[in-house]
Amino acid sequence: MPPDLIVPPLYSPFPPAIHPRHAEIDVQTAAWAETFRIGTEDLRGRLVRHDIGTFAARILPEGHEEVVSLLSDFVLWLFGVDDGHCEEGELGRRPGALTGYLHRLLRVAQDPEAGILQQDPLAAGLRDLRLRVDRYGAPGQRARWVDALREYFFSVVWEAAHRRSGTVPCLDDYTLMRLYDGATTVVLPLLEMGYGYELQPHERDHDAVRAAAEMASFVITWDNDILSYNKEKAGSEYYLNALRVLQEHQGLGPREALGYAIHQRDRVMCLFQRLSEHLGRRGSPQLRQYLHSLACFIRAAQDWGVSSLRYSTPDDPAPVPSAFRDTPTDDSDEPLDIPVIAWWWELLPVRASASPGLLHRPVQQ
Ligand code: 3E9
Ligand code: MG
Ligand code: MG
Ligand code: MG
Ligand code: MG
User: pLDDT tens, 249-266?
Assistant: First the structure.
């Protein structure tokens, strides 16, 4: 990051929170990574110093400890895939071969007994994760988890095609890819499992609830793009994040791109808050817990993003903020100029209206 590109405090309306067992969970995740030999020795040695247990403990601050631990191991596993195979490994430039490997992994997630990838450490780790998903989740949640893994895998293959050709997708394509390749959607079933409830399909699959989850993914991944820019740009490898997309396609300089990305995430954050409040007033207690967990997830990624050695080491300090601000830089109701997410702005009644209003898109039964 150029020295003049200092990340200012980011808008964060949600309070920080952390599970009291975070330190133990972090230690257990390091042991889990060792047991299953996730990643190369070098990658594993780095990952276990990234406070991933702390991240999981912030996502589910009052969740069942076993599920926080499962989430922690799963996030480390995801970095084993994302760093180990996509961003640092050779499969990351071979989308066809990557597709084959990820399909086999998906089969293991669906059927842990499948006689494939017997010597593969990520497959062994995934078998263990799947057994724990069975233990703490309902069959429908396991199905959602497998489906979410598939959408994450599908998006990293798209990303791999850009890595191979050295191209940078346009903002619209990047936004669509990023809703999945930040692996945020694979965490969603664990938000429910963490508090021992199952969101009913008429709520979980309601357009407005899906939109709220997508908005959380947007804010989490835009924040990651801002806070990981230093790490990602520093290497000689191909990298892809929102700041790069804005520089390539909107003709912005690094500083302007940073300001623009902040305005985008602030606007989505404001919409998320308004939609969340609106849905919370009408939904079940489980939906309110789910919306609260989305907010915890956003805040967790921020607190972890500004503190983890993954993004800023003493040898390579990133100019990231140590505090957050409680007002947005942009609270406009106007949709962002990104067609794939324009529908988010059609879900709420106009703000000026005093009536509770109806969602434009009806509840799906
Ligand atoms: C994130 O994007 C990649 C995921 C596979 C990381 C696993 C994290 C989660 C499931 C929770 C979501 C959290 C985020 C996005 C912080 P990217 O840009 O490759 O992550 P990096 O750490 O390398 O910047
Ligand atoms: Mg640690
Ligand atoms: Mg990645
Ligand atoms: Mg990465
Ligand atoms: Mg990143």
Answer: 999 999 999 999 999 999
